[in-house]
Each structure stands twice: as C-alpha cells, then as structure tokens.
C-alpha cells in the first residue's frame, strides 16, 4: 500500500487588465515586445506548461508533458476568460488536462476553483464574499464541466466567514500557509497544541470546524520547499527538485503528502524553463513505485483528516502582518526602498469603501424597482457574463419584475455593471506593489471611475466625495502627487461614453479613409448617413449614426462632424440627433462653409449646430491613436527619406574610411545611417509579416554592426520565431513535407548567421510530434527532416 504522496500546486493568476469602457486590454509598453502582460506570460508560462519539454543527457528532446495533467492547479476566472478568447489552444489544453486527471485520480480532478477577481476576502463585505465565491464556482462549473472540490483563496487571505460560505457552497478544502495555523490537535480527544512560527506539520490534512455541523479540510503547504521554488532557484535543476521533494518524507509509518504551493508563474515566467524542471521531476517521480503523484481531492478521499486545526484569521501567505499589505503601511513592499512608504494604501481602500457603500445603497434602492431580489440577481449575473452577454431575456425572465420596459432593462444592466466594476476595483494587485501610480493601482482606479460614471446621474456628489478621501493617498514619486491628482490626470481622461465612441469612429475614418466599423470593441455602430469631402490637406466628415453598447444595450442616435486640418490637427463635434430636418440643415451649412475654404466660418457653423466642446486626435482610444500617429509620422519621415538615403549613400565610403583610420565619425552621419538602416529594417519586418523571407536582413545587420549602431531587433526576433512556428505547423499538417522542412532550415541558417537567439521550443515540439506520429516509418524519413530534427535537437 502506498503511503507516500506528492502534490504540487500552482496558483495561476493575472489581474484583470481590460479597459472597463472597451472590455479589451490595451497595449502595455512594459510588456514589449508583446502586446500586453497576459500575452507575454501566456507565451512564457501558460502555454509551455501544456507542452513541457523533457531532455535527455545530450540535451535532446525526448518527451513532452502537459504539466497540468499531473499537478494541482487553480486559474483565475478572469485569466481563463482571456485565454479562452486569445489563446484557445492553451485554454483547451488546460481543460483537457483536468478531464484526464479526473480519470487518473479516482474521479478527482486537478483543478481548483478560485474566488472570482482576487479580492482579499477578510477585507470584503459579507455580500461580496458570497458573490465572489458563487461567481468563482459557477465560472469553474461552466469551464471544467464539474463541481469544484477545492477553492483557492486570493493570497490565501482567510477568515472564518469566508470558509463558512465556501463550505455551505459545497467546497471541501482549501490551501493555506503553515504560518496561518494557530493551534492543532491530532485527534478529537487530544489537547490543543499552540503553534509558533509556522510549525504545523504540512504532511497531513486538517479539519477546521466552522460550526456544530459545518467544517472544511485545510492543507498547509510545505513552506521551505515552496520558498525554494519561488525564490531560491530550486527550479534551476529538475533532479534537485525531485530530490528535495523525496527527502521531505519522514520515517513515520503513516500516510504522508508532501505538498507545495507557489505562484504558477514560477514555472516559466519568473524562472525561465521552470516548466521543464517541473516536467523532468514529475517524469522521474512516475518511475517510483513507492510514491504516488496525486492531487488534494484524491488524497482527501483516500485519507480523510483526523487532526483538527484552528486558523489565524485575517492572515495571508504574502504578508507577515495579517492583511496589512492591502489596508495600510505594514512594511511589506517589493523594492524595499528605505525612503519610500506605502501610507497610500489606507486612503485608497477608504476611498473605495466609500464608493462601495454609496454604490450598494444606490443598487438596492434602484434595483428593487427592477429585480425581484437585487442581490440574488447580482449573484446570478455571472451566467450573463459567461454567455458573453448575447442573451439577456432569460436572465430578466428569472430575476426581473413583470412588465419591464426597455429602459428598465437598460437601467438594470447598468446597475449590474456598477456592481461588477465596483467588485473589480478591489482586485488585490491594486495594493500589492509599491506606489499608487503603478499600473496595478491605476487599473483598480479605472474600475472605480467606471462605477462613479454609473452612479453620477443619481448621486452628483460622489466624485468629489471620493476624491476628498483619495487625496490623502500620496505617491512616492516627485513631486509627490496626491491620489486625487493622479485620478484627474490619468483616469478621468479615459472615461468614455457613447458620444466618445462616435467621435472615435469619425476621427478614425478621417485618418484611415474608411467608414466607421460596424463593431468597435464592445460597441456596435449603425450608419444612417455618411458624407466625406476633401480639399487639399483638409477633410470634412459629416455623419449620422447610432451607437449601441453590447454590455448595457443602451444606445444613442448621434450627429457627428469632423474637420481635419492636416498633420494631427482634427476637431470632432458630436450631438444628439434631433430630427432629419435639423441634421440636413447642419450638414448643408457645414459643407457649404467647407467648400468656401473658410476655416473660421466652418468653426462657427460647427459651434452653432453642435457644442463648443469637441474631441481631437488625443481622444482616440490607445491602440488606434498609436496607429494613426505612427502613420502620420511615417508619412512625415517618408517625405524626407529620400534626402537621408541620398546623404547616407553619398557619404558611406568616406565614413568607412574614417572608421578604418580610427578617425572621428560625425554624429550627423551616424544619425542618418541609423535612420536609413531602420527604414530598411522595417521593410524586412513587412516581408516577415507577409510570410516572405527577409533576404535583405543580413546585409542591414552587417552595416549596423560596422557603424556600431544598435537596432531594435525585438520585433524581428518575434516574427522569425513566429514564422518558424507557422512553418512547423505546416510541416505537421503535411506529415513531414521535405520542402517545408527545407524552408525552416533556411530560417535556422539565417538565425545562426545573424546570431539571433530565439526560443524555438514550439518548433522543436512540433518536429518531435511529427517523428512520434511516423512511428515505425522513421527509416523512411526525408534527409531534410532528419537534418531539421538534428538542428532542433530532437532525439530520433
């Protein structure tokens, strides 16, 4: 009978990063060369763990493992939602791994649920705790097609009320740090033993009694081994990881489970190739007949807890001061800068608590005229979110009062979105890092701004009341702006409504010479009229359109006029569409003024028919604003490009002579050379983007090296890797076509010549799978496929 078990848990989580007005993550420059941090970490961690490589002693690929099939794990619901939309192969591999684990582990799957948006539960209101747990469970059920047995608490922050709610909802166990146990007893009739400094034995589960009839099992993960994985480079070597786990067993003749828990991102993101160390250790553990790799639910079913425990309430795994990291200046920080403080955390929470209380009062007051039970409707709103909101009829049939008008349904959805955003504003990352000006804190403030926008028509004092508290949150950056200044400067400018969406569509049409898209982020645009005229560098656009939000179903029919002066100078005015006559009159007068070449008169007409307030290019949403500005600056540079190219070619030989004679190279020539080479580099990037071979790349890099000019090759590296992976996919579909293999080899040769060190793990795995599928026909392999396998270090 096996008495030694090993359970490895990964907590996979990213904070929600979507723009709350667009429901899309905008570009994050700090994640370069990736679009955003979700995309980057998916590439470095989530995807590699679905196909973790195992190498032989010659560093050749000998096997591939889906780690999720063998480890315990939880994924944040908002992260899974992103993966479902943006990386469906990885998403499906995670679901498939859990389904496979159910079959392997006596009907118990590896996946755990997670409280919905990583709210610190001990600091949450009772209603929020309930909704967070309900939403987490329902999200899990929809994705994994089964009931969750365990649930991960964000930051393992725990209190008895949260455990009671979890237990009443059918959750059987959770995972905590050893430091969160207060006292224990090995059997019901034993005496309680008080613990100090995380001394509880983590090799057994414990029963935590919550009432006479209610209890939940708790596993305490092994702190030293988990810390070694997260912070002490244990993942540098898979053999050491395996040995560390095996050496943790004691000589006790009783069932033992060595269980560890870390951020799942340790396996690949925080520690490069950490997923490979994990897969190697797992594969080696499978060889052992005296040890079973298990998950928490299976172990709990085999060995129910006999010992009991009492927890330390309001404690967490990432704060030595209870839950102070999310409520005050407790001393926990990332950078440990002695001159900095985190006093901003308390007023940030106070401001959000004020907003929460006002939002809840409004929700209850207004919601009782729409819903049978507003709070029951909120708990069930997760079903609408999981359906991506196309069908709201069944939801209102279940929760709405009879004979609701269209405007009542819109108001009901606005109130539910108020609640969703005001819960998202409590995402733990908003307090975790060192300053209120960080992207994580700004994100929770964006959710707060969306909540304020919905409340404002009912409660006009809410913004100033909120800012009066937030002003006490002082940034550590000079000149030490206060939270209210940060909010006004960085957040309010992002607030969007239907008129701004209409303006965005119109301004974009001016620059890109196409009518507004029918679908723009989470909005739909229906054009009723569209007129565009040009005169020299100037453009006038007049349009009538209806903009509809797919989130709340609210819509507005709007009249729009945009006047483009050239460069980045554009003015766009928006007003409510009053009547066909008024619109026709305005359109005629604007076109007449435009044709008369009188900019002043056109401005007067726009002021008359619209308002003096207007939108400009800076009001475009981030992605499109960057695209437009790049196009404009590109056009500007192209106008001068000929002069720069001529200067570079004319003086190149003389400059080479100066370099060879070790003479001073003029800065002006270096600047012109950098411009010329970057311009040619962009042409090579375009070739790669269109699936062509960058035949001019090598010469460009040789020239840049000669002039000692550092070009940004991040995009080139990414595109070459992407192209090789695409070709490997074609190779798999064609079952080893020699011509495709030869094309991959050409790219590998290029990488060697230009010393481009790109990550080729996915290509290596693709070739491995081709060879594995061929089986006994290995001797018939084309020479090019054999060469490719050798080049990618795949064992034949």
TrEMBL record:
GO terms for molecular function: catalytic activity. CDD domains: GH57N_APU_like_1 (cd10797). The lineage of its organism: Bacteria, Pseudomonadati, Thermodesulfobacteriota, Desulfomonilia, Desulfomonilales. One of its GO terms (biological process) is carbohydrate metabolic process. It comes from the Bacteria. Belongs to the glycosyl hydrolase 57 family. This is Alpha-amylase/alpha-mannosidase. InterPro entries: DUF3536, GH57_Enzymes, Glyco_hydro/deAcase_b/a-brl, Glyco_hydro_38_N_sf, Glyco_hydro_57_N. It comes from Desulfomonile tiedjei (strain ATCC 49306 / DSM 6799 / DCB-1). Residues 39-310 form the Glycoside hydrolase family 57 N-terminal domain. Keywords: Carbohydrate metabolism. SUPFAM superfamilies: Glycoside hydrolase/deacetylase. It holds the Pfam family Glyco_hydro_57.
